[in-house]
Design a protein that fits this description.
This protein is mostly beta strands. The protein is built from two helices and nine strands; from the N terminus they run βββαββββαββ. The chain has one domain.
Length: 149
């Protein structure tokens, strides 16, 4: 989700947010964050082991902004109308970190994360056939396929 500085290794990150997301609720559109880990030297300097948030656990307190250098993060527990527990993460002042910012919240490529898996791509096939009126006419088949992604 977030990596400062962009392109650096995980073990040398100043700030790193990793999210565990799952498709829940029966729809390919319903992706929920179930676990968030905030690590990196800035996080470890504030709390031994960094920060770990799990959706199935109830929030212990009202969410507050946590400062890591000039960057601020807030993790909020939520619950869908169908009863699914999830997490949201908010970030501000990323441009003031003093370093290039990577990850989905930064400047990294979003193509893989935005592309649904093949099992979630809907296809509609339409086929029309007409029979020849006599033996001298050709058999005609038309096909149309639409993909919704």
């Amino acid at each position: 989700m977030l990596h400062i500085p962009r392109g650096g290794s995980a073990e040398h990150a100043l700030l790193r947010v990793v999210a565990e997301a799952h498709r829940l609720g029966g729809s390919c559109d319903d992706i929920y964050f179930q676990k968030l880990t905030i690590a990196g030297s800035w996080a470890l300097a504030k709390k031994r082991g960094g920060y770990v948030y799990v959706a199935r656990r109830a929030a212990d307190e009202t969410p507050e902004w946590l400062a890591f250098g000039k960057v601020k993060l807030k993790v909020v527990h939520g619950k869908s109308q169908s009863g699914i527990n999830y997490l949201n993460i908010y970030a501000k002042h990323l441009g003031q970190s003093g370093f290039p910012v990577g990850g989905l919240l930064g400047d990294d490529d979003h193509t893989d994360a935005a592309t649904p898996p093949a099992s979630c791509v809907e296809r509609v096939g339409l086929q029309s056939q007409s029979r020849p009126a006599d033996k001298n006419e050709h058999f005609v088949v038309s096909t149309a396929i639409a993909t919704y992604a």
